[in-house]
Amino acid sequence: MNQTMTFIATGDSFITRRLPGKSTRVEGISELLKNAEVRFTNLEVTTHDFEGIPGAVSGGTWGIASPNVLKDIKELGFNLVNWANNHTLDYSIDGMCAMEKYLNQYEFVHAGAGCNLARASEPRYLEAPSGRVALIAATSTFHESWMAGEQRPDMIGRPGVNGLRHKEVFVVNPEKLRALKEIADKVPINAVYNRRLKQGIVSKSDNGLFHFGKHLFKEGELESQETTPNQKDMARIVRSISQAKRMADYVVVSIHSHEMNGEVNEEPSNFLVEFARKCIDEGAHAVIGHGPHILRGIEIYKQRPIFYSLGNFIFQNNCVSHLPADFYEKYNLEHTNSVADAFDARSANGSRGFAVMPEAWQSIIPYWTMENGILKELTLYPIELGFGEPAYKGGWPALTRKSDIIARLQKLSAPFGTVIEMENGIGKVAIKAN
């Protein structure tokens, strides 16, 4: 392993507009990015010339941008891209395949989606000056039909994402569990499940789990929500890590995850914490999380960083040029309405959603150094994305020294035992000696 490697990462790049020429707003960010050898972002939109059909489901907005925005992402300095997320198949398989074509055209190292499960889950490699870096990417937030399928000798695989599924069980006290069972006896909420039991299509659980519709419950005095990663998906990702650590100096795992801890969006779901630590246990040198569009805490686990969410980097989800009829129908709009009407309807003219969430318009850019696989230094640069600006102007990042961003991250990271010191608005993670 080479002595030193420098990394920088950002969260979601939901870019739908071209970067203005000679923009002073991002000039400092581009210089910062290019100081590192490994420069990562999550590409949160599909990039093609409407070369796919709008899917029946989307990531919320049918995210699409001209492939030319990849030129701006490239010129900013990024060389490593995740594209496994809840927008990958907004324009179905053809749109996904077109996006891959353009990512290749602009010579990005990208991971997380592909023509079958093997391609979607395989490591991709960046040849950096100081060594070779592997990227493995996955998403836990996706429609079930988006999961890539395995290739067989006698059947082609299905294009899609490298999905990390998870199991969710709600723990309730004995009285509440009895009440649920009484309800299930009176109304046919379990009718399909019960019929499948009788037909032998499914087997009755013997571990105390009770089906209530699509949800699982079990008895316990401490009422809670338990989530665990799907073991088959976890094993597949571990195999990719095993391969990558023998083929590269450093291994980076990217995970797109909206799932939260109960109703607390600032905290990752338990399965994500288990997943991230398992990746480090198996040889990953960093885990980069993104998805909820806000910051989550940082954990230094076995002297390697886990970023549970880096929030937004570029956020222009209200500047998509065209939307399918499904989006308009959701807000009772007609064919005569425009995209501006649709976005105004979704945000109630800027009075709800991300428009009133300042935390969605503030984030950080971490810059870290590793030597022989061990974290040596981690600096956190705060950014703002233009909260309150018109949609057609906002969404570009700018470096800032506002102390409240680092102060919020200090609180989010404290439960993981991470100490963040602050000087002049910039954060510095205190690295504990082994």
Question: How would you summarize the topology of this molecule?
Answer:
Blueprint: E1 4-14, H1 27-33, E2 38-43, E3 46-47, E4 64-65, H2 69-76, E5 80-82, H3 92-105, E6 109-111, E7 113-114, H4 117-121, E8 124-128, E9 131-139, E10 160-161, E11 166-172, H5 174-186, H6 191-199, E12 210-212, E13 215-219, E14 224-229, H7 231-247, E15 250-256, E16 260-261, E17 264-268, H8 270-281, E18 286-290, E19 298-301, E20 304-307, E21 312-315, H9 325-330, H10 339-347, E22 362-371, E23 374-384, E24 398-399, H11 403-413, E25 420-423, E26 426-429
Parallel strand pairs: 1-2, 1-21, 2-5, 3-4, 5-6, 9-15, 11-13, 15-18, 18-20
Antiparallel strand pairs: 1-22, 7-10, 8-9, 11-14, 12-13, 16-17, 19-20, 22-23, 23-24, 23-26, 25-26
Characterization of the model:
- With 434 residues, this protein is an alpha/beta fold.
- It has two domains: 307 residues, Purple Acid Phosphatase, chain A, domain 2 (4-Layer Sandwich), CATH 3.60.21; 46 residues, no CATH class.
- It contains eleven helices and 26 strands.
- The strands form six sheets. Strands 1, 2, 5, 6, 21, 22, 23, 24, 25 and 26 form a ten-stranded mixed beta sheet that branches. Strands 8-9-15-18-20-19 form a six-stranded mixed beta sheet. It has a four-stranded mixed beta sheet with strand order 12-13-11-14.
- Strand 5, helix 3 and strand 6 form a beta-alpha-beta unit.
